């Protein structure tokens, strides 16, 4: 249960082609994250899979069966929305029971499943409250509860954490990952936050303007980005991209070096610059280095605490092993 | 802004308007109360002696009173049912994306701008007239006997006319409420397996409950005092079959020239309106809390 295949699926809104025909296979039990900047079509793609939008071409198969024309309720998928989309006039219990009631399930089976979901998600204490009386994280759990009681073939998450504060987001991220480890159900997760993508996914699908830029595990994307877009999108802080004479020395149009692959010295090194802003996180220190003659700003990440003041001269040395090279069309040269 | 000084200054500043509004309410009310205890008939000038509850006894034992009371309740209830059911259905229709939506919405609101006397006369003469009316014409076209609405179903006809006037109001309020329904919530319900009917009853109706409450409260206030429509169509007749309380008070004081009796009727109407208000607030007022 839970293998989803997209075969030349396309979506047009009138004249505008939001998603040009694309192929993608999501294996059973996989945690797949669609990631990309806003407006890249990732939510639309999820809604196509859910059946909330009609495809303009191609075929969607769920477990081998053609589901392109199947109405959303019959696809056996459950969705968690960005706004949670809870039913405000129903208690938590009734919210979770709603899909079961619509399916005409017997009362005692409903009760068993709801109690089970409430226990898994720690909802038992406020099962009789209304959504309006819950905090953001609790509402999120209710929305997930409403999805899991249906025992769907796959879960679809549409940016579920973007309405939560930073601390809660980290906690919920962990909870969803643990839920996946326990249920082993296919999950498709849409986000614009590459940190969420890197931490949660088995497989990341990077999208830009409806195109799939690269598909792979988080570390594959980190180590071998297929093109400049993926290189710039995956990794935090962003990769430094250098063009011009320094790049031609390496026989390419652009070279990329991640901030964590540059070593810093106050006395000697390959590139000389001047320290601008520095961000001290304790575990790491980020420097923004100006006047290197390479790029506007070079970002450097140094583990631990390093005392360098703004305006100090600094020497940077890249780790040649971990340098990425890209050709004129932005594709990776291995 | 909330120091002791500024608060007392604020009270001082608003006091003229509060006092004016209070006087505006209290003077007619107390005069009505005063008249209701007098024998005060315009055909018998001279002394207006104090008669205690005599006017009330006459008004409440008048056979027209009970028919007026039931007519009032039937009128209010009938119009409420028609406007709310119709309003919800119309709002559902108007909420669908369509070409010329703006113009259609303005057309739907239009009847609300027609003053009651005019719309009642239009209905009486152009639609319901048994000789020249559109309905009579249609009946004759189908080979049927034209139906004299205002003579044979006077109260139903008035309910129809008043509903036509208030339907736009209900539609407008319910449409705005419907537009605030979160589309993700409807999609979630769709994914949860709710069909169109289930979505309507489990999502749309609960979402509209507060707007429906507002419509019921506001319309009840105005429908208890329907008058112009009755005056220009049936004059409360035939007999008292389309007389409501407002019209009965009018008939008592201005057709029978009995100011005392009319005032007593007015006081009775105030009390009844308050009873209705208490029942309404008990039944549906809880929908207005947060």
From TrEMBL, chain A:
SMART domains (alphabetical): AAA
Entry annotated with the keyword Nucleotide-binding: yes
InterPro entries noted in UniProt: AAA+_ATPase (IPR003593), ABC_transporter-like_ATP-bd (IPR003439), ABC_transporter-like_CS (IPR017871), ABC_transpr_MalK-like (IPR015855), ABC_transpr_MalK/UgpC-like (IPR047641), Mo/tungstate-bd_C_term_dom (IPR008995), NA-bd_OB-fold (IPR012340), P-loop_NTPase (IPR027417)
A Pfam family of this chain: TOBE_2
One GO term describing the cellular component: ATP-binding cassette (ABC) transporter complex, substrate-binding subunit-containing
Keywords from the UniProt entry: ATP-binding, Nucleotide-binding, Transport
Molecular function terms, GO-annotated: ABC-type maltose transporter activity; ATP binding; ATP hydrolysis activity
Cited CDD domains: ABC_MalK_N (cd03301)
The ABC transporter domain, residue ranges: 4-234
PANTHER family assigned: MALTODEXTRIN IMPORT ATP-BINDING PROTEIN MSMX, MALTOSE_MALTODEXTRIN IMPORT ATP-BINDING PROTEIN MALK
Homology family: Belongs to the ABC transporter superfamily.
Name recorded for this polypeptide: Sorbitol ABC transporter ATP-binding protein /mannitol ABC transporter ATP-binding protein
Biological source species: Puniceibacterium sediminis
TrEMBL record, chain B:
GO cellular component annotations of the record: plasma membrane
UniProt KW Kinase keyword: no
Cellular compartments annotated: Cell membrane
UniProt KW keywords: Cell membrane, Membrane, Transmembrane, Transmembrane helix, Transport
Coiled-coil ranges per UniProt: none
Residue ranges of domain ABC transmembrane type-1 in the record: 69-280
GO aspect biological process, one term: transmembrane transport
Spans traversing the lipid bilayer: 12-35, 73-94, 106-123, 155-177, 211-232, 264-284
Predominant location category: membrane
Membrane topology: Multi-pass membrane protein
Highest taxon, organism lineage: Bacteria
InterPro entries per the UniProt record, alphabetical: MetI-like (IPR000515), MetI-like_sf (IPR035906)
Keyword Transport on entry: yes
Protein family membership: Belongs to the binding-protein-dependent transport system permease family.
PANTHER family (UniProt xref): BLR7065 PROTEIN, INTEGRAL MEMBRANE SUGAR TRANSPORT PROTEIN
Name this protein carries in UniProt: Sorbitol ABC transporter membrane protein /mannitol ABC transporter membrane protein
Source organism of this protein record: Puniceibacterium sediminis
């Amino acid at each position: 249960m839970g293998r989803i295949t997209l075969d030349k699926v396309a979506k047009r809104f009138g004249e505008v082609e939001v998603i040009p025909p694309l192929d993608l296979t999501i294996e059973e039990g996989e945690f797949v994250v669609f990631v990309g900047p806003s407006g890249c079509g990732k939510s639309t793609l999820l809604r196509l899979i859910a059946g909330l939008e009609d495809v303009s071409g191609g075929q969607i198969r769920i477990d081998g069966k053609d589901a392109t024309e199947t109405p959303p309720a019959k696809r056996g998928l459950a969705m968690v929305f960005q706004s949670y989309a809870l039913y405000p006039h129903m208690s938590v219990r009734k919210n979770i029971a709603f899909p079961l009631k619509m399916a005409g399930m017997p009362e005692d089976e409903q009760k068993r499943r709801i109690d089970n979901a409430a226990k898994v998600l720690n909802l038992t204490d406020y099962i009789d409250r209304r959504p309006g009386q819950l905090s953001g994280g609790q509402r999120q759990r209710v929305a997930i509860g409403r999805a899991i009681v249906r025992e769907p073939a796959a879960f679809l998450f549409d940016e579920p954490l973007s309405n939560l504060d930073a601390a809660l987001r980290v906690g919920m991220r962990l909870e969803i990952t643990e839920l996946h480890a326990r249920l082993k159900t296919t999950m498709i997760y849409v986000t614009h936050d590459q940190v969420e993508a890197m931490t949660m996914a088995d497989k990341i699908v990077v999208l830009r303007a409806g195109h799939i830029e690269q598909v792979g595990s988080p570390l594959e994307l980190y180590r071998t980005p297929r093109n400049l877009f993926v290189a710039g999108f995956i990794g935090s802080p962003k990769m430094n991209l250098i063009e011009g004479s320094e790049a031609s020395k390496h026989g390419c149009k652009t070279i990329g070096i991640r901030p964590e692959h540059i070593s810093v010295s106050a006395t000697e090194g390959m590139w000389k610059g001047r320290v601008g802003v520095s961000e001290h996180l304790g575990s790491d220190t980020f420097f923004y280095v100006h006047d290197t003659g390479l790029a506007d700003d070079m970002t450097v990440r140094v583990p631990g605490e390093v005392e360098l003041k703004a305006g100090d001269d600094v020497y940077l040395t890249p780790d040649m092993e971990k340098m990425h090279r890209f050709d004129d069309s932005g594709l990776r040269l291995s | 802004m909330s120091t002791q000084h500024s608060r007392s200054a604020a009270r001082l500043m608003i006091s003229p308007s509060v006092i004016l509004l209070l006087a505006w309410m209290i003077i007619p009310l107390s005069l009505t109360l005063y008249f209701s205890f007098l024998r005060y008939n315009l055909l018998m000038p001279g002394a207006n002696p104090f008669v205690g509850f005599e006017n009330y006894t006459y008004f409440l034992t008048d056979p027209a009173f009970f028919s007026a009371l039931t007519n009032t309740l039937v009128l209010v209830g009938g119009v409420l049912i028609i406007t709310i059911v119709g309003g919800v259905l119309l709002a559902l229709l108007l909420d669908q994306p369509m070409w010329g939506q703006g113009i259609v919405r303005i057309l739907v609101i239009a009847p609300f701008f027609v003053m009651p006397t005019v719309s009642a006369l239009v209905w009486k003469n152009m639609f319901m007239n048994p000789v020249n009316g559109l309905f009579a014409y249609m009946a004759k076209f189908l080979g049927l006997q034209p139906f004299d609405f205002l003579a044979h179903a006077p109260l139903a006809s008035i309910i129809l006319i008043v509903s036509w006037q208030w339907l736009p109001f209900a539609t407008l309020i319910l449409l705005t409420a419907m537009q605030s329904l979160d589309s993700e919530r409807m999609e979630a319900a769709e994914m949860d397996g709710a069909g169109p009917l289930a979505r309507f009853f489990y999502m749309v109706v609960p979402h509209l409950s507060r707007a429906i409450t507002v419509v019921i409260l506001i319309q009840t206030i105005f429908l208890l005092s329907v008058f112009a429509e009755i005056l220009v169509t049936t004059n409360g007749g035939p007999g008292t079959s389309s007389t409501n309380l407002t019209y009965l008070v009018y008939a008592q004081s201005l057709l029978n020239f009995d100011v005392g009796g009319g005032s007593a009727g007015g006081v009775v109407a105030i009390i009844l309106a308050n009873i209705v208000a208490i029942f309404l607030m008990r039944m549906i007022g809880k929908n207005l809390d947060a």
